[in-house]
């Protein structure tokens, strides 16, 4: 896939017409703008959280304005509008509702940041590759009947959320709470997809992904995360990740990501 084709797949960006008209030098400039958002987002996220914790709504509002303007510059128009809605609502809502709105907004922004980084990583590794090394999109290898998913997360509530989201779908989800349990399960089973939390004790998601590949398992790996920093995302991709599900997870996001790969 080309850079333009990958950018088309980032649903948060309203670029379907704009990209077609961009010359190569304009596309390169746009990619630099996207990367600036990726680099600036962690600091803006930290400022939002700290200003809200201190109930400094003036700083919170100014940071939202900065984020809104950045989103407009990369044509993430719906997210820019969401920022403006939260700015307008600050004077009328309770602190607890502002916190909930911030959590929701930050999860959307983290997903956008990660999606951009996946595009950039693909360009830096192999222009023709659709998935990182070790992943597979060969549907002929999928099992008959319900496609199977192995989810690994030390938080049982997260596993329950995944199960609830997929219970009425054509996917069979098996959840385990440790990397050791996952490796034992894989001695007898060959799932069509993996969903791995990154921050787990003893065997974290990175190490588990490497060990899954060492076992010869080639199914795509989706990482669960709320962290959109560059080093964090890059390490996950190099470990064999194909994509990410950003916490807090929603049924819509889970189904979109799962259906993309199986």
Q: What is this structure, in a nutshell?
A:
The chain is α/β, with parallel strands linked by helices and 262 residues long.
What can you see in these coordinates?
It is a single chain. The chain has 2 domains: 3-125, Four Helix Bundle (Hemerythrin (Met), subunit A), CATH 1.20.120; 139-261, Response regulator (Rossmann fold). Residues 127-144 have low confidence and may be disordered. α10 links the parallel β4 and β5. The chain has helices at 3-8, 18-21, 24-53, 57-73, 77-89, 95-125, 156-166, 179-185, 205-214, 230-238, 251-261; strands at 147-152, 171-176, 193-197, 221-225, 241-246. The chain is an alpha/beta fold and 262 residues long.
Task: Fill in the keyword field for this structure.
5 strands, 57% helix, 2 domains, 262 residues, 5-stranded parallel β-sheet, Four Helix Bundle (Hemerythrin (Met), subunit A), alpha/beta, globular, single chain, Rossmann fold
Please give the structural blueprint.
Blueprint: H1 3-8, H2 18-21, H3 24-53, H4 57-73, H5 77-89, H6 95-125, E1 147-152, H7 156-166, E2 171-176, H8 179-185, E3 193-197, H9 205-214, E4 221-225, H10 230-238, E5 241-246, H11 251-261
Parallel strand pairs: 1-2, 1-3, 3-4, 4-5
Helix pairs in contact: 3-4, 3-6, 4-5, 5-6, 6-10, 7-11
Alpha-carbon distance between the termini? Answer: 19 Å
Please tally the β strands and state the result. Answer: 5
The CATH class assignment of the largest domain is Mainly Alpha
Query: What is the number of helices?
Result: 11
Main sheet strand line-up: 2-1-3-4-5
User: What structural class do the secondary elements suggest?
Assistant: alpha/beta
Indicate the CATH topology of the largest domain. Answer: Four Helix Bundle (Hemerythrin (Met), subunit A)
| Rg for CA atoms | 19 Å
The main β sheet shows up as: 5 strands, parallel
Helicity, in percent?
55-70%
Tally of individual domains: 2
| H/E topology pattern | HHHHHHEHEHEHEHEH
Shape-level CATH architecture of the largest domain:
Up-down Bundle
What is the overall pLDDT average? Answer: 87
Instruction: Give the CA-based shape.
Output: globular
Beta-strand residue fraction: 5-15%
